[in-house]
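anyone seen this seq b4? input:
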Amino acid sequence: MNFSRITSSVKYNLLKGWLGVFLFSCIIAPKALAQNTKRDTLLQEIKEFRNSNVFNTRDTLYIHNLINLAIEHRYHNLDSLLILSKQSLDLSKKSKYVNGEISSLHAIGGYYSDKGKIDQAITYFEKAYQLAKKNNDNSILIIRTLNDLAKEYGYKGDYSKALKWYLATIEIAEKNNDKNSISIVNDNIAHLYLEQKDYEQAMVFLQKSKAIHEEVGNPVFMAETLSNIASTYADMNELEYAMYNINISIATFEKEKILEWLAFCYEIKGKIYLKKNKNTWALYWYKQSELLHKEIEDDRAKIDLLIGMTEAYMNQSKDSIAEAYALNAFDLSKKIGLRIGIKNSAKKLAQLHKKKKDFEKSLWYHEIYQVTYESLTQTGNEKALNMLKTKMEYDQQKQQLIDDNEKALAKQKIFVYVAIIILIIFAIIMFIIHRNEQQQKKLNLELRNKKSDLEEKQAYLNELNQTKNKLFSIIGHDLRGPIGAFQGLLKLFKEGEMTKEEFLNFVPKLKVDIDTISFTLNNLLSWGQTQMNGSVTKHATTQLDSIVEENVALLSEIAESKSISIVNRIEPNCQIWCDPNQIDIIIRNLLSNALKFTPNNGQIVIGAIQKIKTCEIYVKDNGMGMSEDIISKLFEKDSNHTTYGTNDEKGTGLGLSLCKEMVEKNNGKIWVHSALGKGSSFYFTIPRVQQPQKQYKESA
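predicted toks r here
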């Protein structure tokens, strides 16, 4: 919609009616809600802290949340800002939390600044700065407190001191390459020149700030600078440039829901229309700003808004409304001691009373205007000279330091040359000594290397011996027993000492034994490969759900024999990056263990939690559980610990050690949570497929 084309008063009144309601509900309410959301989150976190069993008021995270909550109340509830800041200051002192103490002092300074109590604000900002400078190496806190201290001197009218502190702030920020802080200070210096109507010098600093934002790329900081540029262009009557920049700022602040800056931008847009003599549209944007000011507490910004609305109503000859706004601006300016606000509002009130032929009040307000104007003009000239003098003195001090450093460097060069000659002589002597030492070290190193080789070979032989012993133990104990029993049954059947029917009764038991032997042999072979460095991990994109389904089907007969239900919660198309054969062994071992230690009519659950980079797979049962002593030895490489299952099932003690080795080969981790009588939960992680192949659809 092209707003500039709507000039009819009828259209404006209709538009004003529905648009005002619409904007109030669609802009103010959601933005206020967004502002409250962060405060509500902080309140909830603080409440959870206080309800915690281990709550301690000296917890730095708790204090940090209090400070953040206090800051969130600025521009919304100044009393809450003060109460929370004093509370966090007291707790920070008790807990010796220096950063918290600095931030609390800074927040209290912000309260007094917004209340117009500049001297008290300066006191707290100076305390925060001195504490940050003395006890803290956090450059951000130092820069922030010094910048706000300079800003208060600007509000006080001491522009010379304000500029001095701003320049010091920039120097610290440049040392720390803090470009965002440099841009903020440039904006603040520009405001000093704007107060003196030196728009060209102000624009120099604003353009510096804009260039920094273009490099850094922070849209919110860029919008803040563009809104200041728009205001400056409006004061320079470059209205098209002003409108272009303010529209960009408004779009950003509406998107980010930053009420205080959005109110400022609406006021600037109203000022642009006012300078275009489009009073209807000026008032429209002023009223949008006025609505936002009901949600925030920013008296300094509100004064400019009220004076702008006064002028717009005066241009429309609505003098009674204009007078109400001018009086509001005058009272608010006196309340916070803003002399330029007193001057501008007194001038408007003098004009309004003169128009009403109330010459006594008109003269009274004119005298206030004249006195304030002369004071500002006089101090303005002094300030301009002081600012220039301060900047020159600052530059001279910097140049003097540079000259002094160059002289010191010249003297140092002589000492350096002498030192170099001495070092060369010393180096020659040291070279001769070093060469002799090197020869001796070489001989010692050869001896140590031979000793190290012998120790490594001894350790390797010990490991091979342990592997051999474990292998023979498993073959002798876990395989020979079932095979011997099978041979005995066959011998009895062959010699006629057992009937066919009796032999068939042993078939289910024989099948279980043979399955156990097969499972043990597979584990034994896999383990043997890993021990002999013969196992190669081949990663590929793997469907986890397919592997799990195959193993559930494979072990379903054992599960049915114990009336155990296996619940598969693996989602379809769950892709992982791994060696599919090794993952198959891991899943089978974990499911087999769960079946072994779960009683009849129990339940086993297998599932996966898909995270950003990994897939966390778990196997949970409601079986026997384990003690802490067993858990501590469970994944040890040399552990031979085995336990009989609920139906006297036997194991080799290899399964979990093998699982651990294979999980780690696939860049994962494995762990267990268990308690006696409450079951066990095994977890392991495997990397997910990070870049799945894209599906392209051919055009028809």
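The radius of gyration is 40 Å. The mean pLDDT is 79. kinda curious what u guys think
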